[in-house]
Amino acid sequence: MSGSANHQFRKAKSLIASLLCSVAALLVIAPLGLIFFYLLRSGLSSLNVAFFTNLPRPVGEPGGGMANAIVGSGELLALASLIGVPVGVLGGVYLAEYGTARVNALLRFVADVLNGVPSIIWGVVVYGLIVLPFKSFSAYAGSLALGFMMIPLIMRTTEEVLLLVPGGYREAALALGISRWKTIVHIVMKTASKGIVTGVLLALARIAGETAPLLFTAFGNRFWNRSLAEPIAALPLQIFTYAISPYDDWHRQAWAGALLLVAMIFLINLLVRFLTRGRAARVA
Amino acid sequence: MIETLPAMQTTRVRTVDFMQPLTDQPQPDAPAFGVKNLSMWYGAKEAIKNVTIDVPAKRVTAIIGPSGCGKSTFLRCLNRMHELVPRTRVEGEVLFAGQNLYSPDVDPAMIRRRIGMVFQKSNPFPTMSIAENVLVGLKLNGVRDRNLLNERLEKSLRMAALWSEVKDDLRKPGISLSGGQQQRLCIARAIAIEPEVLLMDEPASALDPIATMKIEELITELKANYTIVIVTHNMQQASRCSDFTAFFYMGALIEFANTAKIFSNPTRRQTEDYITGRFG
Ligand SMILES: Nc1ncnc2c1ncn2[C@@H]1O[C@H](COP(=O)(O)OP(=O)(O)OP(=O)(O)O)[C@@H](O)[C@H]1O
Ligand SMILES: [Mg+2]
User: Fold this and answer.
1) Residues 6+ away with beta carbon under 8 Å from B23
2) Hey, whose CA ends up nearest to atom 12 of ligand 1?
3) Domains along chain B with CATH numbers
4) What is the pLDDT of residue B26?
C-alpha cells in the first residue's frame, strides 16, 4: 500500500517538475515571439524602398528613410571588426597556445570583467580617449567603442574553440618540422576556423544593436558623413532619436528600423547555427 | 604490472641491472643515433634513467617494455618532441649525424624534418584532402615546385602502400579513409618530407589484424631507406618486423640485442619475465 502511495507521490512530483520546466521554456521563447509580433505589426508597413534609399526628412515631410543610418551602422561594424577581430582572435590564440597558467588566469579574469562592463562605460572611456582630444564626435570614436566591446567576447570564444582542437594535430604538424606559428595558423586555426568565425559573428550580433556606447562617440548624423572623422549615423541611434520624439511618422520609422535591426541579428544567428551544425558534425 | 613486483626485486633491479654498463649491446658501424647517458624528467619525476644505446642505421629497432616504462618518452627524446611538455628536462646527449641534438644551436624544427614521427592514434588533418595531407609538410616548409610536389605525392603514397587505394580520390578528405588507411596516410605524410629516420609509437595498436599486417609489411620495406624505431606492445610484432630490440623497464634500458636473441635467449631476468608474460 504505502509503496504504491509513494509511487503516486513521486509521479506527481515528476509531473509538477516537468510542468514547471515547460512553463519556463515557454517564458524563454515568448519574448522573441512578442518582439517579432510587435515589430512586424508596427514596422513592416514602413519598411519600403524609401526607407532604404532616402535620408531622414523633417517632420511632416513624407518619404524619409534611414539610408545613412543603415550604411553608417555597416561602416561602424566594419571598422569595429578591424579592431576587435584581430586583437580578439590573437588574444584568444595567446590564451590557448602561448600563455602560462598564471598569465592566462589573469587575462581570463580581465576579459570576463570587461564582458560585464556596462556598454555605456565604453562610450565614456572613448569619449575621453578620442572625442575630447580631437574635439569631434566621429565614426572612429564610435567604432573604437564597439571594437573594445568585441575584443573580450571574441577572445574567449576563440580560446574555447582552439582548445577544442585535439593536441594530436599540433603534435603531428610540429613533428613534420613545421614551425610553431605556422602550425597554429595553418593547422590549429584552420581546424577551428568555423568556430572562430562563429565567435566573431556572435560578437557582431551582440554589438550591432548597441546604442549607449555610440551616444557620445558616433553621436549620430541626419546627413551623410563626408569622412570617418565626422559624426556618423547609426541604426540604433536613429531608432532611439525617433522613438523618443513626439511624432507619429518618426515612431513608424523607428519601428521599421528596429525590425531591420532585429532581422539582421536574427539572420546572423541563423548563420551561426548553420556554421556550428557543420562543426558539430565534423567533431562527431 | 610494475606495482605487483616485490619491493626487494625492484631494488635489486635498480642497483644491479640498471647501473651496470651493457657490454653486450650490438655495435653497428654507423649508428643513426648515439644516445649517451640520457636521463629525462617530467618535473621531478625521472622518466628516462641514464640510457645509453646506439640505434643502428637503416634497421628496425623495436622498443618494448611494460606500460609506463618510458618507451614513448624515449622516442620523443629522439626528435625533441618531449619539449612540447612543459617543465621537462634532459641530461646526457643524443648524437645524430655527428651532432648533439640537444646542443643549443640546433633548431628542433630542422631536426624533426630529418627525424619523422608516426603516432599511435592516426591524425590526418581534418581540414585537408588526402593529397594536402601528404604534402602539408613540404608546402608549409616552403616547397612551391608543382612538379616536385606531384612527384612526391605519388612516391610517398606508393611507399606507404596506399597509392592504389586512393589514387582516384586524392581530393577527398583525409579523414574519409578507414582507420588503417588513415594510419598509412600519416606514414605517407611523414615520409613525404624525406626524413632519414621514422619514429613510430605503437603505429598499429588501434588497427585490426589485416591493417596491422599491412603496416608491418610496410615497415619491412621502408627499412631499406630509413632508420626505424618502433614502440610496440605486441611481442609478435616486435619479433616479426624488427632487427634489434630494446627492452625498457621503469625508465631504464635493461637489454638491447638482436631481436632473435632477445626473444630466444635474453640475458636479463626482467627481459625474460616480460617476454614470457610474467609481468607487464
Ligand atoms: N606529459 C607527461 N607529464 C608527466 N609525466 C608523464 C608525461 N608523459 C608520461 N609521463 C610519465 O612518464 C612515464 C613514462 O611514460 P611513457 O608515456 O613514456 O610510457 P610508455 O612506456 O610509452 O607507456 P605506454 O606503453 O602505456 O604507452 C610514466 O610514468 C608517465 O606517467
Ligand atoms: Mg606510450
Assistant:
1) none
2) B47
3) 2-123+197-212+221-275 (3.40.50.300)
4) 58
